[in-house]
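re the bet — no i am not wrong, look at it urself. input seq straight from the record:
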Amino acid sequence: MILLHQIWNQRRQNLWIFLELLIAGFFLWMVIDPIYVQTANRLIPQGGDSRGMYVLELGQYDAGFAQYDEAQDSAQAMRRNYLDIIRAVRTCPEVEAFTIAAYGSFPNSSAWSGMQLFNEDSVMVHVQQYRYVPLDGSDLMKTYGMLDARTGSRITSPDDFARLDRIALSERAAIDLFGTADAVGRTVYETPDRQYPHEVAAVFRNYKHYTSEQPYPIAVMTEKDLGMSAYMSYIYHIVFRLKEGADPAAFEARFAREVAPTLSRGNFYFNSLKSFGEYSRQKALSAGVTNKMRLQYALGGFALLCIFLGMVGTFYIRANARREEIGILRALGVSRAGIVRRFLSEAWVLVTVAFALALIVIGHYVYTAGFAEGISAVGNITKRLVPDPSYAQNRPWPHFLWVTGLTYAVLLLTALVGTWIPVRRAARTLPVEALRDE
């Protein structure tokens, strides 16, 4: 009661900082909300082991280049040269597994390809499709380090997976289609009238295509063949992973020195070799994810700076104006720590009351406008995804409570530090000096 009475007596001095806290609480909540969503999305497990994964990109000369060889432009020559390149990569002693990935079928690629799948009751689920060519031991699931949904162990493609009527589903895709992840042996269709059936040969754990986003339902399928054409090199990428214990830096140096110069075959030429991590960073930067996150952090930092300076300035003035009170308290035997605690308690009450009132406005805003959405790397494509309720950021109350708790903690910590600095200095004043000055 004494504390509340003291705050009421200082109401005119407290009014400005109360209004500042009210506005800052609302603004800080709006800033932390997208940061929370994006951070929570990034913390979702990849769904596989991405360490030691690389993407090899090839270029292709056409008639506009001096290096173009017309005799090597036939489908047979292209296929032969491409298979030679694959063999040169997969036979590297450091390489454990590889795959010939079709359009957009590798993590953090610059493309995204989707399709519709139906169950026997014609229930439709939109999935992202990963397709690969099963030649020379190409195995997408093994290369991407995907995990079996039931056992959690590394998964490889079944022996008969090269058949075009076989399919592998992610957990989310299987649950959406059948209500359970135990879907091996079930059948899915590409049309609602049960045409183009596919038997589910495996179910793997949810796999993230983009590091900054939530997992989308995925279906893994095989391609019939390389389908060589004039634009082949822009469709198929060679993705591979290194063996456990291989040194990535040593491999990259050896590859650039010994392997890359040998990959120019016919009209194909070596373009680049990038790791999964490098692809992830480049995609986040090119899609604007990195810059948007930097903006949110900058806005949050600006809000905190304003709050901090406001608290320091206000409590500096208050501490100086209350030097007589501080002197009397010191004369009565109250320690410096006790005086600091008294002021910090006042700051805590101000922050709590102001933030409680700000939550009324915040709640109304969220009710009408909704929560922040994750930053998408592919525009509106992933908006087709029905949010997975197993993630807290997709459930309204956990989402609201997490952001509210984080905002309150940051706001309170900033206010307490901004209060502690000037009050601690004022509390050092000797009682005689404080009373004499008055």
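see?? The longest strand covers residues 124-133. told u. also The chain has twelve helices and ten strands. so pay up
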